[in-house]
Structure formats: structure tokens, C-alpha cells
Amino acid sequence: MKHADDLDHLAGCARCRQRFAGKTLPTDSGERLARKREFLAAAVRLERERNDAADLVARHLRETPAQEWPRLADLPALRNNAALEQMSEEVRKRLHRRPTEALTIAQLSTAVAALIPDGLYPPLVLAQVRANAWKDRASALRYLARYDEALDAASIGEEHLAPFAAVEHDRAIVRMVKGMVLFQSGRFDEAAPILAECRRVFAEHHDHRRHVHSGIAEANVLYETSRYAEASVVYAAVIEDAIVTGDIESQASIHNNLGYCMTHLGDYDSANIHFSEAIAKFTDLGFTAEVPRTERGAGLILVGRGQIASGLAHLRAARRDFTAAGMIEEAGLCALNIAAVLVDRGEGSEARALTQNVIDEFTTAGLDERAIAAVVRLRDDIDVDSATAETVRTVHAFVQSLRDDVCCLAN
Questions:
Q1: What 8-state DSSP symbol labels residue 225?
Q2: Minimal CA–CA distance to 133: which of 168, 161, 164, 96?
Q3: How far is CA 264 from the centre of its chain?
Q4: Which residue intervals of 95-225 are DSSP H helices?
Q5: What are the φ/ψ torsions at residue 385 (nearest 5 degrees)?
Q6: Chain segment 309-346, per-residue pLDDT in tens
Q7: Hey, CA dihedral for 239, 143, 104, 65, is it positive or negative?
Q8: Residue 338 Cα distances to 1, 69, 376, 385, angstroms
Q9: CB proximity list for 379: less than 8 A, separation 6 or greater
Q10: pLDDT by residue (tens digit) across 86-121?
Q11: Which of 169, 214, 207, 173 is nearest to 191 (CA)?
């Protein structure tokens, strides 16, 4: 978090100093001058620290074995806002790919923040610094599905900001993480109002990026509770900000989610438009895995709603794209989705040919022999006309479980 611009403004604006500090304005002119000088000095200090600390954290992380990162809290050179900003960036970069490393750095960050002397910055700034560190810790814990600890970390972040009356934006940043944790842990009724409030705050502060992210999270809660019309309204409300900020990935995700909402609402024309938009944007981004996943998701939900021809078209496109991307297991699972529909429609010969293709592809790719054997048995059942759509779905679930077991071991 950068605070220099805020501090420059606060130094010259008595009304905002009162609002942000949550204190009565000093009536003595000397005290007012002292307060102004305090904020000016803090702004200068923060900027100087940034200039002096370039690459400081990244260098220490490179030069120190990961198991020894916690001892970096002993370094006085890291006990400042600039170093904590760099730690926050290191956490962000690792969250998706190496969340355990992200958590170690976030734990270091909260330890360092606690060691910053109380008088180094104005109380407001120190509260923001410490709250941001705890927000990062909560985010890392969330990615590791350690939800109770994540909620505790977010609560500590909120406590640091509590003495200040109007740090709405900072508080919303922390509470957005809290709302996402509640959502992921299935506490939808608690998550929804928090995320809705965060979206309001980010809109009022013209924080377009976070407005989009909080809106997607809020709409996801509504979707999971089958409130599809309400979810679609929220998705539509934030897509404009995603366009304004050039956030193509969020636009693609929102279109994908709107496609699901419209399908549940029976508006299949709109659903296909949104799915097509999502596929086009994922393609532009080069997200080769997301394109067929969107196609498959669209196909499954359309089939489930009785739109068989349209659903099969999406599923076949997904299988084609999975195969082209070398995602043989995903292509095979998609083929089994198609086979279930074919068997249900009495088109056994096509279903049999499709399962034979899956057997050949799995064998060539050297996939799990148990998966191959299960598909072989399915093919044989189709041959003697004893397979049902439920039989195919059972085999699909078994092959999926084998893949998930491998993924868990890899992680």
C-alpha cells in the first residue's frame, strides 16, 4: 500500500486529518502546525524508504533458504513500510502457484509490522501498514483452505483499523478477504452482506479493480444460493468497470458466469452469447485450458436443462479443444459426458465408437490402467446393450476420482 499521496493531502487538509484520524481537531495553532509537520515528515520518510529499499526484500528472499525466512524479522532494515510493501508484492506473486511460500512471507510481514516502533509513522499510517500485513496473511491462509485461521487474521487486521473512524477503504480491503473466506467455507449468509458492503465502498472510492473483484465474489455467493437473477444483476453491474480497467480476464469470467445464470433462468439465447464472449476472451488471453472448460461447462448445463443439441455442440467443441491442447484425460472425460447423452438417446453405436477412442487415447498417453479398464468395461456393456446413462456417469466419476487423487499427491 502506498500512503505518500494520502499523507501529502492530509498534511494540508485539516478536515481530512480529523476524518482519518478520528480525533478532534486541535484548536491551538501551534498544535495544528505540529500535526501538519508530522504528516509532511511521514510522507517524506515513506518516499525516502522506497528509494532506499529497492529490491531489498527480493534479495533477502533469494539469498536466504526458505526455511530460514522467519529469521529475517530480526533485520532492522526490513522494519519499515517500504519493505512491507515489497513483502506484500511477493505474497501476491506466489499466491496462485506457491501458496505455502506466500504464507511464510505473510507471516514474516506480520512479525515485522509488529516490530515497527509506534512513533515511526503517524498512528493512522501504522494502522494501515499492520492491517495490510494481516490482510495478506489472511489471503495466504485462504488459498491453503485454512479458513478459521484466515478469519482470525482478517479480524486482527480489522482491529488495527478500528480506532480510526473513516478508513472505509482500508477496512473494505481487509473485509473483502474475510467475505471470500466465509464464502469458501460455505457460510453464505455471512459472506453476502460483507461483500455487498465492500462493493459499495470500492464504487464510492472509484477503486474499479476491487469493485470488480468484490462484485464477482458477491455474485458468486448469490449464484451458489440459487439466486440467479440477483447474481446476474451484480455480474452485469461490475462488468463495466472490468471494461474500463481493461481487465480482460475478469470480463471473461463474468461472461462465463452470466452464461450459467442465464441458463438457469431459461434465457438460452443470452446464455450462448455470454458463453461465446467468454470463450473469445479466454482465447485472446491464450488461456488454452479455460476455453474448453467453458465449453464443457456450457454443454453440461445446457444438456441438463434439456437443450440437448446445443449442449452436445459445446461438449464436442470442448473435447476437440482439450485434445488439441494435449489434455488427453480432460478430453476423455468430456467424451464420457457425450457418451452418457448418446446412450440415453439410444445411439449406442456412436457411444461405443467414442468409448473406443477414449481407450486408444488413454492407452497411447500411458494413463492409469484402472481408468482404461473401467472404460473397456463400459464399452463392453454398450456392446451388449446393458449400459445406461447412469453407468456412463459412474465410470466418469471413477476416472475423475483417479485424476483428482493424482492432483492431490502432486500438490
A1: T
A2: 161
A3: 24
A4: 99-115, 123-143, 147-161, 168-184, 188-204, 208-224
A5: 60, 35
A6: 999 999 999 999 999 888 999 999 999 999 999 999 99
A7: negative
A8: 49, 50, 16, 17
A9: 352, 355, 356, 359
A10: 999 999 998 888 889 999 999 999 999 999 988 888
A11: 214
Q: Sign of dihedral through CA atoms 118, 119, 120, 125?
A: positive
User: pTM score > 0.90 for this model?
Assistant: no
Q: What is the torsional sign of CA 246, 252, 257, 263?
A: positive
Residue with cell 512479525: 111
Which residues have CB under 8 Å from 246's CB, separation 6+? none
Helix (H, G, I), strand (E, B) or coil at 316: helix
Sign of CA dihedral 74, 76, 80, 82: negative
Cα separations (Å) of 175 from 180, 215, 237, 309, 384? 9, 13, 20, 44, 58
Q: Is 271 helix (H, G, I), strand (E, B) or coil?
A: helix
Amino acid at site 187: R
Angle between helices 348-365 and 369-383 (to 10 degrees): 160
Per-residue pLDDT of the chain (411 residues; tens, 9 = 90+): 444 445 444 444 444 434 444 444 444 555 555 555 655 666 665 666 666 666 788 889 989 999 999 999 999 989 888 889 999 999 999 888 888 999 999 999 999 999 998 888 888 889 999 999 999 999 999 999 899 999 999 999 999 999 987 689 999 999 999 999 999 999 999 999 999 999 999 999 999 999 999 999 999 999 999 999 999 999 999 999 999 999 999 999 999 999 989 988 989 889 889 998 999 999 899 887 888 989 998 899 889 888 899 999 999 999 999 998 889 999 999 999 999 999 999 999 999 999 999 999 999 999 999 999 999 999 999 999 899 999 999 999 999 888 755 443 333
**Phi/psi zone of residue 155: left (φ > 0), alpha (ψ -120 to 50 degrees), beta?**
alpha
Tracing cell 440437448 back to the chain, one arrives at 308
The amino acid that residue 185 corresponds to is: S
Phi-psi region of 306 (alpha: psi -120 to 50; beta: other; left: phi over 0): left
